[in-house]
Structure formats: structure tokens, C-alpha cells
Design a protein that fits this description.
About 40% of the residues are buried. This protein is α/β, with parallel strands linked by helices. About 5% of the residues have low confidence. It is about 45% helix and about 15% strand. The radius of gyration is 22 Å and the shape is globular.
Length: about 375
Amino acid sequence: MEAPLLYEIGITLIPGIGDVNGKKLIQWCGSAEEVFKSSVKTLRAIPGIGQAAVNNILNQKVLKRAEEELRFIETHHIKALFFQDEDYPQRLLNCYDHPLILYYRGNANLNHQRMVAFVGTRRATDYGRARCREMIEGLQEKEVLVVSGLAYGIDGCAHRRSVELNITTVGVLGHGLDRLYPAPHRKLAEEMLANGGLVTEFMSKTKPDRENFPKRNRIVAGMVDAVIIVESDRKGGALITAELANSYNRDVFAVPGRLTDRLSTGCNFLIKSNKAALLQSADDIGYLMGWDDNRTTANQQTALFVEMSDEEKVIYDLLRQAGTLGIDKLVIQSGMNPSHVAAALLNLEFNALVQSLPGKQYRVE
């Protein structure tokens, strides 16, 4: 087998080479195939690639396992999405540690215009499930794609309500597509394939081991516009996903709960520490994400009648083009002094042209 996909799968199997170094190899050599066909001299010249990795590439034993995986995905009609493919989730490309390849079953567009993730505790209470269903129902008219991890609790609730309302929903798995975990969600997963799908970075024969789920969480956080936390303890996967989403400059929302409820401590903490916006209804999501068309038009018209300084115009234009930016990136991209950027942002906020978001992020109102 000499298909490019053989080598694209193979590069993910090289011991000692992860997602970041894998992309470095491809960039240096020109393609995944050329990585395996390059000389020892070329490979040794690549910064950060040690002799052990060079030996593993030259050995090429991984290509045998890649051949096996290629036969598996062809037999089961699985799509392999390499990070250079157009169908690969483009939002993930903004995350430095995005997977080199994803395995996908389904019919959803992973580059849907509006995508949100729902995450939360596996031990969801009646309160958490009710809030989750309410949010999903409120998003029905906003034409979103709902992403979650197909776990027990909030994940399963989000997928189930999406299926019931015919909202496109995609589950991100922590194992290969030759199995389904947890097993009781198999029927739900099959229903999701009709209007959505299942995606994973893990090859067949990969078990749902504990260490896989934090890796799964980074895909959930990276492939969407916003992450919604519904019920979470102070520690756990939902909080990890929220931290990842903030690091990727994604919008994060959290549903608050009573101070005495343990499974609301995580959400309340995120809100208190300005790492998530307080979420009361799906309308809050539409408003804060700028998905209400009349709001966007009105604010653009308002901007025409507000006198802005040259510095404020620079900041406003950067935010209008990028959508959301952190203050550090605004300083870098504008070339302005941090204090001048802060002052410009403050004035723009006073004029209701710019909105401050959790994590020192800003967007045009």
C-alpha cells in the first residue's frame, strides 16, 4: 500500500513523536510520506528530533500497523481526517496540540458555522439534567451543532436531547471506533450517526483507558466556539475542559448552582474566578456569542457614529476581524504599549462597542 494515508497514519505511531513533533517532521520534510523516505542526514538535521526517533522512523515497523488500520477504516467506512485535509475541523488548527489525524463516522459537517460543547459531571442531578435539556432546547432555533464526550451524566443528556430535537450532535471518544464506551450508550451512539457522528484520534484496538480522556477533552474544547459547563465538582474532566477552552481562547459558560451543592462547586468557582460567564438561559449564549443578527447590525451602525481615537480604531478593527482576542495578543498585534491598549479597551467598553469576557478576552459587541 502506497496511499498517502498509510504514511499519515504511520507518523502518528512513531514512538517518541507526538502531535507537535509530528507536525514539525511533516513541515521539514514536506509530507508524511517524505518523512519515511528521507535520509538519515535529513532527519538528524531536524531540531528537536533525537537519534532514538530517527531510528524509529528508519525502522518503519509502524507502517505494518498502519496498513492494518487502513484496512480497518476501509472495511468499516470510517473517514480518516488528516490535519491538512479540508474536512478536518478547522477550529482545531488554532490549538497548538491538535491531533495529526482524526477518525470519523457520521454525516455532520465538523466545520459547522456554530458549534458548542456541553460537559459536566457523570453523576448529574435532576437539577443538572433539567438545566442541560433547557439549554439544548433553547439552542434549537440557533442552528448549532452540539459536541460532547458521550459519557454518563451531562454528556449523555446533551446528546440525547439533541437527538430528540433533531439537532446535529457529535460525540468525541476516548478510544477506537471498534468499540463503544460506556456500553449502555451504544443505542444512543447509533442514533447520533443519523444526524451527527462519532470522532476520535485513537486507532482501533485502543481501550478507554483513563489517560485517554484528558486528550479527548482537548478535542471537545478545541473544535467548538464555546464550552458550556453544566454541573461539576471542583475537580474533574469538566473543569479540565474549561481550562483547555480558556487556553484556546474559546468562550466558556457555566450554569450556577446553590452554594451548598457539591456538584455546583466547579461551576461556581469558574464564575467567581472570571473563567466562565454566568449562564442562565440559551438566550445568554446567543447574545454573548453575537448570534443574534439584529444585535450585530445595530452595533456596527452604532460604531459609525462614535468618535474613536486612532488607537481605539486599531483595537476595534483587530477585534472585528478576529472575533475574540486576549489582551496579550492585542498588544502584540497592535504594536501598542499595554497601558495604551488597556485604556483603549476601557473607552470602547464605555461606548458599548467592545465586551469584556472571562480570561481577559475581548470581542466586538
